C-alpha cells in the first residue's frame, strides 16, 4: 500500500504507521510570548476574518472582540502554553546530583521546588535513573538525610506507578524503566524493603505491590519465596517486627486482588500458585504469633505485643484474601488450628493495651479482632460445611464481644462487623435453631439492637460539627457502615425467620419509647430510636434508586407516619429536635413509593420549609427527599412509567423551592452540598415546561455558583450536578425556543473563559460538552456564528488533545461543529485539520471510538465533494490500523462505518475507493472482516438498521460480486447475516437506542463524566427508510427480477439450513407485497 498524503493543519503527534502525514505547526506558535498575545485578545475588538488553519490563530487573537467571544483567547492560551518536556535521552544523574535535587524539591521556595521537579522529570527518562534512586535510598542512612531519603522513595514509587505498565498513549512513560533496570529492581527490591525504616518501607512496599499487579507471578517468580523467607520467626528470640510487618503488609496488598473479582481459570491458577507456596508457612507463622501473644505476659515488652497483634491482624487479612473465592483444601484440613487461634484472639485481653481515655482510634486488640470476625463472616456467608461445628462457639464469642464494646467511635468497626456476622446467621433457615425462643430475640433487641440504634454523644457532635460525615454514615444510599445501618439490617434478618415475633417485640418497644417521649419531650432520643426500629422491621425489599417495593404487612406504615412523623414535620419551630426532624425527613424519602400524589402535595411545602433549617443535615435530607419524590414513578399505559409527581404538580411550589435551594447554594459559609445541587437538577428537569419565566434568575444563580467553585473545586459530585443543572436548563429552554442560545452564550461564556484561562482541568470536559450542546441548539440555518467560528481553529491544536480527559468532550464538540457548520468548515479549509484530529485519535485504542464519531459526522454532514478526495487516505489509515490491531472493538467500529458509507454512497463507490488502495480489497474486507464480525456479534438497534441498509446495497447494487471468484459464497454469507439481524429478537430493529430515562441515576465518573442532560439525541442517518427489513426485501425482489434464475437458487440454498428463517422471509415478502422469484 502506498502512504496517504498529509492532512494539513494538524501537527504530527502520534501516527499509527511509520508514514508521517501531519504538517508541522509553524514555529512561531511555540514562541513563549504567544500565550501573552492570546491573553491580550480580551481587550481587542473584532473578528475580521476566519482563520484558515491553526497557523492563523495568532492573527485571529490580535483582532478578537472583548465580548463573550473572548473565550477564544483562553482556548488558544491553554493549547499553546501547556508545555511538554522533550524527553531526549540524557545521562543518568549521579547520586550526589540526585540527592541535591531531591533536597531542593523539599525547599519552601516555590521557584526552587519547581525547577528541581522539572529537572527530575527530564532526568527520569535516562537509563539507570531508577537504579540510582534505589542506591540513594539504600546508602543515605544518616538521620539528617531522612527527609531526602523519603522523598527518593516517593519519587521511585511514582516512577514505578507511571512507567512499569505505561499508558499506550504516554510515549515518555514507555522509556522510564528499560528491561535491564527492571530485572535489577525486582531482584533487589524485597531486600531493600527489609533494611529501611518503616516510613520508607511503606513506599517500597507500595512499589512492590504496583509491580506485582502486572508481573506477579509469571514474570516475578522469586518474589513470593523472597517474602516468605523473611517470615520464619519460629526459632527467633529477637524478632525484627518492622521486617515481619512490612513483608506481611506487602503480601496482603498483593493478595487483595483475589477479592471481589469474577472467577476465572487464570485467577484460580494464580491463587493455587500462591497457596502452594504460602499456606503452610502462613499457618506456622499464625500459630507462632498466637503462642507468642499468649506467653508474652508481663515479660514481653508492650511494643512487641503491639507489633505481634499488628502481624496477626495482617495475617488474618491474608487469610481472608486466600479464602475469598473458595475454601482451599489445606485450610479445610487445618481448620481446627486456625479456628482455635481465632477463638483465642477473640478472648484475648490485655489491660495495658487499652487506653480508657481514647474514644476515636481503635486499639491493636480491636483491629485484630475485627480481622478475625471478618474471616468468620466470610465463612458463615459461604455456608462452608467444615466451619459449621465451630459456629456455636463463635456465635457466643461474638455475642460476648458485642456485650463489651463501648459506644465510642473506636469500637464502631468491631461492633458493625460483629452485628453483620450475627445478621448473616440469623437470616438463614439453617441457623434458625441458634436463635429460636422469644427470650433470645428479646435479648437481641435489648442488648444489641436498641443500644446500637441509640444516638450517642459522638453522633450529636458529628450532626452539628461534621454534618458531611454524619450524612455519609446515615444516608441509606451510602456505602459506609454504621451501627445504626447494621442494626436495622439485623432487624430485617430477624424478620425473615421470625417476622411475627420480631414485629410484636419491636412494636412493644416502639410504643414504650413513644409514650416516654410524649410524657417528657426532652427524651427525644427515644422517638428517634422508635422511628429507626420501624424502619428496621417495616421494609422487606428496597433499592437505593427506587425505594421500598415491599413492606411488612404486620406494620401500618401510613398510620405511624400520620401520628408520629407528619406531626414532627408540622412543628412550627424547626430548631427543636433537629436530629428527629432529619430522621422523619429520611423516613419520607425511604417510603416515597408508599405515598400518594396527594400526600406528596401536602408534604412538599413542609419539606421546602425545612430547606431553611440552619442544620446542614436537616436541609440536606429535605433536598434529598424532594429529589427522590421527583423521580418517583407509577405504572402508565403500554408498560411505561409516569412521574407520580409531575411538573404540573410541582409548579405551585417552584418559586419557594428554588428560593430555598439557592439560599443554601449562595451561603458561602456552607460547603458545596451535592444533594442540594442534585435536587436543583431534578427540579429543573421536572419543571422544564415552566422555566421560561425564571430562566434568567436561575442561570444567574448557577453561573455565580460555577464562578465560586471554579476557584477551588473540592466536591466532584456537586460540580457534576452543577453542570447537569446548566445542561438541563439549556435543553429545556432551547428545545422550545432556539433563540435562547444567544442568551446562554452571553451568560456562560465569561465563566467558561475563566475556567479555560485558569486551566481548571476538572471542569474543561464539562465546558466542552456544554459548548457542544449550545451549538447544537443554535437555530437551523444560522450557521456557527462569529463566536463559535472563531473557536474552531484553536480546538484543532495538538496540546489540547494530549490531555486524555478532554478527548471525549472535544470530540463531541467537533461533531457538533460538523453538524452545524459544514459550510464554514469547507469555506475556511478546516476539514484537513479535523482529519488530523481523526488520525491522532485512531492511533490509540482508548480514543479510536471518538475517531469514528468524527468520521461518521464527516460522512453525514459534509458535502461529498469536500471529503471524497481524501477518502482513499482515510481508508488506508483505517486499513493500516486494522492490520496492526484487529480487536473485536475496532472491527465493530470499522464495519459500522462501512455500512454507513455504503448506505450513503452505494456499493460501487465503496469498492472503488478500497480498490484504489489494492485491487480486490473491497471484496476481501467484506469476506474476511465484515461478515465474520456480523456472524460473531450481530448489531442491535440503530446500527442494526444501518447494517441492513448497507448490506442490502452490497447484495443488490454490486452484481460484480457474483461474477468474482468465491463471489456467490460471499453473497450468500451477506444474505445470511442480513436475515439473522432481521429475525433476531435482540436486534430491536426499529428502536433508535435503549431507553434512557432522565430519572436514571446520574453522577460523577472519575474516568469521564458524561453530562446526561447534554447528550446529543441519537439521529437516524436513514430516517427516510421507515423499515429497513421492508426496504431489503423489496430490493432483493428487484434483483431477482433483473437476474432471473441466478439469484433465487442462492437464496434457496441459504435458507436450507434454517427453516424458521425461510418462513420468516416468506412472511416478510408477503407483508411487503413482493415475491422472490
From TrEMBL:
Primary site of residence: cytoplasm
Biological processes, Gene Ontology terms: protein transport
Entry's localization field: Cytoplasm; Nucleus
UniProt keyword Protein transport, yes or no: yes
A cellular-component GO term for this protein: nucleus
Assigned keywords, A-Z: Cytoplasm, Nucleus, Protein transport, Transport
Family per similarity comment: Belongs to the XPO2/CSE1 family.
Protein name: Importin N-terminal domain-containing protein
Organism of origin: Cyclotella cryptica
Organismal lineage: Eukaryota, Sar, Stramenopiles, Ochrophyta, Bacillariophyta
